[in-house]
Amino acid sequence: MMKNQFEMSDFIAGFWRLASWHYSPQQRLSLIEHYLDLGVTTMDHADIYGQLQCEILFGEALSIKPSLRTKIQLISKCGIKPTFESAPERYVNHYDTSEQHIFTSVDNSLTRLGTDHLDLLLIHRPDPLMNADEVALTFKKLQQSGKVLHFGVSNFSTGQFELLQSRLTPMNIQLITNQVEISPYNMTSLHDGTLEQCQQHRISPMAWSCLSGGEIFTSQSAQAIRLRTVLNHIANNHCVKDISPIVYAWINALPSQPKPIIGSGNVQRIKNAISSKSISLDKQEWFSIWEASTGHSVP
Ligand SMILES: NC(=O)c1ccc[n+]([C@@H]2O[C@H](COP(=O)([O-])OP(=O)(O)OC[C@H]3O[C@@H](n4cnc5c(N)ncnc54)[C@H](OP(=O)(O)O)[C@@H]3O)[C@@H](O)[C@H]2O)c1
Questions:
Q1: Which of 4, 32, 91, 176 is the most exposed place for a label (fewest CB within 10 A)?
Q2: Is 214 within a domain?
Q3: What do you get for the CA distance between the two ends of the chain, in Å?
Q4: Is residue 52, in this structure, part of any structural domain at all?
């Protein structure tokens, strides 16, 4: 019997945008401590975020107070090779899920983050050239070395997930999550079987871009305007000033129990997101948001 012993916090801190916040090391440390005070202990990175800078900036902050490491579950991702200035040999963005690249990526993430292990490693994007046997064996070797404790995937279709899991099952490894985009603005994962698959495996998906990267507040598309109208109306009914807690409450209502990744660097906005825990939407409110997203009623 495989044991899923990895406990994520209910919300996850996302650090994709960390380099763009231009915070000092002390401000970055304060942000991490704010998250921990709010019960958010799981922190999401990727090797490529901020052209490799985000993990470095995070590691620098953590080095001011290394004792925090034991309170944090660190996630990173690998498998994308973009055409960075610092990698002049690359002339096309591509994927690489070979053993050699995964090993190199993990070693580099550990160095940048200043830690001896990742709690969870995800394959960032499905790779049409992925050899599932090779990835499974690589995961096993990483686990045996103690460099990575748990494994998952991101943006995988249900078939891609099943393929990799089928190779991992004999090795007694369970994929812990599929990290996918989930928001009222993009409901693809609600309709393509991804979330049902998570329920079937009794794992929680991780939800990225819950606020559609800010578009839900700013876009002038007909869909965004419909959504803001309905979200504001529901927020008023719940005596909430901001629409973001309603968006998170809508995601929290999904039975696969997604773990929303918060993308803001603003402490008040982070608190707003977490305040959604106390908001329960009834089915008519939930489907009003679904209707505003699709532009039509359920059949
Ligand atoms: N696996 C993947 O392929 C993948 C892809 C994308 C992201 N991710 C993960 O998911 C995390 C979250 O993604 P995300 O950053 O796109 O999340 P998000 O929450 O959808 O977007 C965050 C953006 O929205 C802005 N925002 C928040 N509240 C706002 C408000 N009230 N008004 C206007 N703008 C507002 C934030 O600005 P402020 O900072 O100014 O608040 C920030 O720029 C990332 O950090 C990363 O860890 C994973």
A1: 91
A2: no
A3: 41
A4: yes
Give the chain's domain count: 1
Residues in contact with ligand 1 by the CB-under-6-Å rule are 14-17, 44, 154-155, 179, 208-214, 217, 244, 261, 263-266, 269
CB 271 within 8 A of CB 240: no
Instruction: Return the residue whose CA atom lies nearest to atom 8 of ligand 1.
Output: 208
Signed CA dihedral, 13, 19, 20, 26: sign only = positive
From the CA of 181, how far away is ligand 1's center (Å)? 11
| Nearest atom of ligand 1 to the alpha carbon of 211 | 20
Among all residues, which ones are annotated catalytic?
Answer: 49
The per-residue pLDDT string of the chain (299 residues; one tens digit each, 9 = 90 and over) reads 455 578 999 999 999 999 999 999 999 999 999 999 999 999 999 999 999 999 999 999 999 999 999 999 999 999 999 998 888 999 999 999 999 999 999 999 999 999 999 999 999 999 999 999 999 999 999 999 999 999 999 999 999 999 999 999 999 999 999 999 999 999 999 999 999 999 999 999 999 999 999 999 999 999 999 999 999 999 999 999 999 999 999 999 999 999 999 999 999 999 999 999 999 999 999 999 999 999 999 99
Residue nearest to atom 32 of ligand 1 (CA): 217
- Nearest Cα residue to atom 48 of ligand 1: 208
The domain containing residue 24 runs over which residues? 12-181
pTM of the predicted protein model: 0.97
Domain assignment of residue 120, yes or no: yes
- φ, ψ of residue 205 to 5 degrees: the values are -70, 155
Atom number, ligand 1, closest to the C-alpha of residue 21? 39
Q: Is residue 202 part of a domain?
A: no
Q: Read off the CATH number of the domain in which 98 is found.
A: 3.20.20.100
* H/E segment holding residue 242: none
Q: How far is the CA of 213 from the centre of ligand 1 (A)?
A: 4
Query: Which amino acid, residue 51?
Result: Q
Indicate the top mutation candidate among 9, 12, 17, 75 to test ligand 1's pocket, ranked by most ligand atoms within 8 A of CB.
17
